[in-house]
Design a protein that fits this description.
The structure is a homodimer.
Chain A lengths: L10 H34 L4 H8 L3 H13 L3 E3 L5 E3 L1 H24 L3 H11 L5 H13 L3
Antiparallel strand pairs in A: 1-2
Helix pairs in contact in A: 1-4, 2-3, 4-5, 4-6
Chain A binds a DNA duplex (30 and 30 nucleotides) through α1 and α3.
Amino acid sequence: MTPSLEQLPDEQAQAARFQQARDARNAATAQDYVELISDLIATTGEARSVDVAKRLGVSHATVVKTVNRLQKEGLINTKPYRGLFLTDVGENLATESRHRHQVVTNLLIALGVDEETAQADAEGIEHHISAQTLATFESYLQGHRS
Amino acid sequence: MTPSLEQLPDEQAQAARFQQARDARNAATAQDYVELISDLIATTGEARSVDVAKRLGVSHATVVKTVNRLQKEGLINTKPYRGLFLTDVGENLATESRHRHQVVTNLLIALGVDEETAQADAEGIEHHISAQTLATFESYLQGHRS
DNA sequence: TGTAAATTGTAGCCAAGGCTGTAAAATAAA
DNA sequence: TTTATTTTACAGCCTTGGCTACAATTTACA
């Protein structure tokens, strides 16, 4: 059993943590999109928005709208009725996100979580891993090579 | 370096993972509120919405609106100009959330993440931990008692 | 080539979770 | 007991990320 708290954390510190979590939540969409687009291009040669929609499990209209926003933000390039492409900035973000995703998945598996559950949980967890925690995960994996 | 993917996961499986992450994101707010309200009551005897706002780092108007929704959903009870209270359902959710939060924090610390970073990252991660992963974390901690 | 199917785009709707500003009620202080 | 402060409530606005429905364009095939 976990006991109830006997002392609250500092007010400002707690607010900063919640803020960090909200920021991560807001950044998650962009990361999911560029990571998926990058993977699609790498494996199939192109990223069609219809495939992005199917793989995210959302409607294609949602994808179009979000892609428009990410294009304004400088992560994605599109040509009408052609596939989706990443800018350099987008590609860098994708690489970083994929790496973080992979490290989280591997850590969960190394701790004993089964692969399918690890894949699923990693999809949410990856967006909340700070640089320090990522480094910690990496060195743990380093020390537990199979 | 993490290599790029050489094979994409199954389409439906991937969509299901993204859906799980979205569901977790949507449930996060309710969990944060009940957990915080429960902690405030346990340590200070009451949960004023002004304190909830300060600790979440949002405006009090946001708290009022969210609390109204959570009341409709049966997690919180309020009496005008009195503090916030949890229903039995809310209290159960709070207990479960606090436990999950604590386990995640402890795991990060056990792996070598410093306490402040662990606290911050746990705030986001906790919402994406499945029952199986939670159990795995618990047994890891069990085997690494200091 | 011309038509059907697939793909992409557009319009408009909704809920959640932020915000500011203002009003009302309760509590504290003079 | 007034008055000032704090707390709570309410109104209205914005953005994000969902959706359906419909239009336009491209691609495939008969």
